[in-house]
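About this split. The held-out portion is used to measure sequence recovery: a designer receives only the structure tokens and must propose an amino acid at every position. Recovery is the fraction of positions where the proposal matches the reference. Here is one held-out target exactly as it appears in the evaluation file.
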């Protein structure tokens, strides 16, 4: 029966979170994080021995558990304040009265009425003109504070992703430099060993010839 490997808990920072995973080896942890480089060699990943931090990852081995650094209130407080909504000015009601009536030419040529005509034609009572209706004040413009906060959260997520990609690219570049140095060192070592082999083979051949000549 195969022996079950012991699980360890590893941690690495990813943006504003700490990513924990329970795995049997560092290689398995890197695979769970989706890392193509050795984060442990770079010093950005480590094993965790704190039992409180190990509890959640050990419940689901191989599953990455993200723990934010700082509370969500602190993250929201770091966002820029939302701009206040602009309020429209309420229109001013027109308090001016109706325009004066224009005199027509026929009214100007009409002869002035006599006193008897004025007595017979009593003026009809004028109707009271209705006051102009006042317009309702327009409602304030809806606030877009929640929309602004959501957009800024998306911007933060994009910036965090770019930062993580940049870190991984730096790690890849460092590993490539290390690999080239290792290959150069290996080639030099192989050349020295091959030279030693050639020299030893030549010495052995000469000694073998001398031995044959002296052997009856």
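Reference sequence for scoring:
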């Amino acid at each position: 029966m195969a022996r079950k490997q012991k699980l360890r808990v590893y941690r690495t920072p990813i943006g504003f979170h700490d990513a924990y995973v329970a795995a049997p080896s560092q290689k398995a942890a890197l695979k769970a994080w989706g890392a193509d480089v050795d984060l442990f060699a770079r010093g950005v990943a480590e094993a965790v021995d704190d039992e409180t931090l190990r509890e959640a990852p050990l419940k689901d081995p191989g599953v990455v558990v993200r723990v934010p650094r700082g509370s969500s209130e602190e993250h929201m407080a770091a966002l820029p304040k939302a701009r206040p909504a602009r309020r429209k000015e309420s229109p001013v009601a027109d308090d001016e009265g109706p325009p004066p009536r224009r005199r027509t030419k026929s009214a100007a040529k009409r002869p002035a009425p006599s006193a008897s005509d004025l007595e017979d034609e009593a003026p009809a009572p004028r109707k009271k003109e209705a006051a102009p209706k006042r317009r309702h004040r327009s409602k304030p413009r809806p606030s877009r504070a929640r929309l602004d906060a959501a957009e800024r959260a998306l911007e933060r997520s994009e910036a965090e992703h770019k930062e993580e990609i940049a870190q991984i690219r730096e790690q890849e570049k460092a590993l490539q430099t290390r690999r080239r140095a290792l290959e150069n060192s290996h080639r030099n070592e192989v050349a020295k060993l091959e030279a030693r082999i050639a020299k030893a083979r030549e010495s052995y051949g000469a000694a073998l010839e001398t031995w044959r000549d002296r052997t009856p």
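Annotator remark: Residues 8-77 form one domain.
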